Amino acid sequence: MKIAVLPGDGIGPEIMTQAIRVLDVLRAEGLDMEFVEAPLGGAGYDAYGHPYPEFTQKICREADAVLLGAVGGPQYDTLDRPLRPERGLLAIRKDLGLFANLRPAVLFPELANASTLKPEVVAGLDIMIVRELTGDVYFGQPRGMRVNENGEREGFNTMVYTEAEVRRIAHVAFGIAMKRQKKLCSVDKANVLETTEFWKEIVIDVAKEYPEVELSHMYVDNAAMQLIRNPKQFDVMVTGNIFGDILSDEASMLTGSIGMLASASLNESKKGLYEPSHGSAPDIAGKNLANPLATILSAAMMMRYTFNNEAAAVRIENAVKKVLAAGYRTGDIFEPGMTRVSCSEMGDQVVAAM
Ligand code: NAI
Ligand code: MG
């Protein structure tokens, strides 16, 4: 298993160091893993003058999976847009054809107070949102701004999905549902938008290949309400790019803790890019304060979705649960009565729990 390691900027190198230590436990036990490090984002610009340099591109293309920290920082804000760190993220997603974005929202029972919702509403929450990442109104043509026949200025975008695009994301979602509760909710706005009516039709057709999965459909506005009212009714949700952008951010905040949120983006060959949902946190960078758990949990997702190693994934996740149950907390999830630890001490605890 060849893993491209892209620490990135800000807290990226600190959280990545801890994730690699956790993976090294598995490697020491005989799991065949090779790590190849490369710069992305601001680090790529500093080393090679580009946020996704050719050097990094080559390593990522040859790897089975990519583990990414975070990119960006105030020192890069004055660069031309094409050279900014965030462009490195878009470039790598596009280069590797990552069309399926998996965003789990998991509330560890020990962190029930971090949520803004009542503990009983979110306790035990474990949702997976599958968002299509390369189509929809974000990429549809035509798009732009123009003057219409009445002489008025107007802006326009095009919502479009091809059948193949819907089929492949539906297969990913059903595949994930098969590994979980066998419950899938497809989110659309089929009452108003033809594109999403078509989406629904294709999802229903793909469902025939997964008779064990209980499929339901929900309009996106209702889904947004239900996520707040009774989020535990959901297991896996699948939706298009724009609805998924909004719903995945909404769902992730049910847990209240940005330092805990992992993510995966997959392509057709199951190659994946795994990264925490948060950014490079320049305000705490270099201070050994960051929470490395989102990156460690992203490494667990890598074991599950690219390497099909469920046992290794569960082992990492259980180690994290054990450390939380023992009361260890970085600053972002700290509560009185708990043991405050640094980024590297959190890594120590997870390694010990492994
Ligand atoms: P951010 O997620 O970096 O930080 C938001 C707040 O959450 C900060 O107060 C930060 O200290 C805290 N935080 C984030 N991750 C944490 C962790 N692991 N442990 C403890 N606290 C944590 O978002 P922000 O401030 O909007 O962006 C900072 C930079 O990151 C910008 O340059 C932005 O463009 C970039 N960014 C990069 C992303 C990526 O690499 N995927 C995603 C989002 C932002
Ligand atoms: Mg978003």
From TrEMBL:
Q: Where does substrate bind?
A: 93, 103, 131, 221
Q: Which organism is it from?
A: Pseudomethylobacillus aquaticus
Q: Which Gene3D superfamilies match?
A: Isopropylmalate Dehydrogenase (3.40.718.10)
Residues the record lists as binding Mg(2+): 221, 245, 249
Alphabetical UniProt keywords: Amino-acid biosynthesis, Branched-chain amino acid biosynthesis, Cytoplasm, Leucine biosynthesis, Magnesium, Manganese, Metal-binding, NAD, Oxidoreductase
EC category: oxidoreductase
Q: What is its EC number?
A: 1.1.1.85
SUPFAM superfamilies according to UniProt:
Isocitrate/Isopropylmalate dehydrogenase-like
Q: In which pathway does it act?
A: Amino-acid biosynthesis; L-leucine biosynthesis; L-leucine from 3-methyl-2-oxobutanoate: step 3/4
Q: Which cofactor does it need?
A: Mg(2+); Mn(2+)
Using the UniProt record, give the first listed, main subcellular location. Answer: cytoplasm
Would you tell me the protein name for this molecule? 3-isopropylmalate dehydrogenase
Q: What the protein does?
A: Catalyzes the oxidation of 3-carboxy-2-hydroxy-4-methylpentanoate (3-isopropylmalate) to 3-carboxy-4-methyl-2-oxopentanoate. The product decarboxylates to 4-methyl-2 oxopentanoate.
Q: Which GO terms describe its cellular component?
A: cytosol
Q: Any idea which GO molecular function terms this record carries?
A: 3-isopropylmalate dehydrogenase activity; magnesium ion binding; NAD binding
Location of this chain's protein in the cell? Cytoplasm
List the PANTHER family. Answer: 3-ISOPROPYLMALATE DEHYDROGENASE (PTHR42979:SF1)
